[in-house]
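Session log. Operator J.P. requested a structure for one protein chain; no other inputs attached. Running the standard single-chain path with C-alpha cell output.
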Amino acid sequence: MEILSRVTDPKTQLKVSAKVKTFVLDTNVLLHDPQSIFKFEDNNLAIPVEVLEELDAIKTEQSTERGRNARRVHRILQELLPDSRTMLEGVKLPNGGTLSVIINRYLVDQKFDSPAMQRFRAVLPDFSKKDNRIIACALFVQEQYDPPTILVTKDVNVQLKARAVGLESEDYLNDKVPEAVEETSYREIPVTIYELQRFCSEGEFDLGPDVGKDLFLNEYILLRSNEGKTMPARFYGNGSVRRLKIPDFVKAPGGIPIRPRNLEQQFFMDALLDESLSMVTCFGKAGTGKTLISIACALHQTHDDHSHYDGLSISRPVIALGKDIGFLPGTLEEKMKPWLQPYFDALEVMLPSKPQKEPQFAAKKVSKKHKKKQYEDAALQAAPAPAVHSNHHHGNGNGGQPIKPYEKLIKSGLVEIEALAFIRGRSIARRFFILDEAQQLTPHEVKTIITRISEGSKIVLIGDPAQIDNPYVDSRSNGLVYCYNRMKGQSLAAHITLMKGERSKLAELAADLL
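Structure written below.
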C-alpha cells in the first residue's frame, strides 16, 4: 500500500507520496521537454509556483519554440491539476509518481523559518531573482520530506548555487546519450589477404555473423589484412560489406572539381551521394571539410539530370531555433547572410569568380606620377560601367556590380536560404537540406526540423559537439548527438566522424592545441 506523508506544517496542504526521490523541476527543464513531467518514473515531482510565473511570461512568444513549449506545459498542468486542491495536495501521475505545485512558506510567512533558510538568505539574499526563489523552494521541500530532494535544472549556474547551499542538483538526463561520443572515426576489421582480394574484385564480401553482429547498419569500416593492405567498405547488414560508390570528383555546374583528401571524406562523400539514405549526421572539428564536401555533393546531384533533388536548402541556427530575425534589416537572404557566410565561402571555393587582370606597366623607367596615372587608367578600364537609370531594366540588378557565380544559383532558386525560425508547418520536398551547427539545437528542435523533410528529400546535419554556445545543451544532450544516437542502425541513416583537418596545417594545429 502506498504511504502518503504530509509536511510538518499543518497550514500547508501539500501532500505527496514518500517514495525514492523528490525532484524539483526548474523552468528550463519544462521548456526543454514539456513531456518531462511523465519521465521521472514513480518518483515525486514538485514544481515551484515561481516556475508557473516564468512560464506565464514566456507563453506570449508566438513565433518561438519556447513560447509553444510554455503553452504546452500549461495545457498539461491544467489537465493534471484542474483545481486548487489538487495543486496543493498533489495528484498521482500515470507512471506511478506524484505531482504537486509548491509554495515556499518560508518566503510568504515570516513565522516559519529554519536555520537552513537563514544560511540561504545570508549567501543569496536577493529574492527578486527567480533562480534564487526556485532554489529556496527546493530547499524548503528538502527540509519537509524524508526522500532525497534533487533540483533538476539545465542551468549550470543554478546547479552550482544550489550545491553551494547544501542542495543536491543535476541536469535533466532523459535525452542525454548514455556516455560521451567516442573520438574514433571508424573501426578496422581484420581480414585475410585472399578475402581482401576477393572483395576488391567482387565489390562485396561476407564478414560472417560473429563479426557483423557488432556493427551498425550503414556503418563505415576499413578492412585491413595482416600484410597492411586496406580497403574502405560500408556495412549493409547480415554480415555483408560493400565497396564505396564515389566518383573521382564532384563539382557544381561550371565549378572546379572537388576530390576527397582522406578516407573519412570518402566515407562522407559516399553517404552524401547515396539517395537511399535520407539522413546523414557528421561530427567534425573546424577545417575537416564538413561544409565544403556537403555543398559540393549537393550541387553535384542537383545538376544531375537523373537526380530527384530540385535544389539545395542551407541553414544554421541563429543562436538557437526560434530566435526571431525579423527585426534585422533587409530581405531574408540579407538577414541570414552573416550566419551563412561559411557557406558562401565554400561556394566561392567551388565557383571562383574570374580573377581581374592586373594593370601592366611598360618596362621603361617612368616617373612615380606617370606610373600612378597609368594605374588609375587601367583600374578605370577594368571597372564595370556605371548603371544607367532609365525606365527600362538594364544591368544585372546588382547595382552595376558583377554577380558572383554562386549568387546566380541563389537567384535562380537552385540554392535556397532557410530560416529555422519559420520552418514549423513547412513540408520540404525534393530538396537536399544541409543544417550546419546542429550541435547548438536541443533534441526537440532537431525533431521539429527533421519531421519537415518530405519523401524524396535528404537532410544532412553537421557540427562539432565539442563547440557549443547554447547554455542549455552539452556534448551529450545536444540535438546532433541525440539524433545520431537514436538513429544509428536505421536503414535510412548513416553517420561519419571527420577527424583530420584539411583546411591548412595551421588550422588543424590550432583546432588541436588551442
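Operator note: The chain is about 35% helix and 15% strand.
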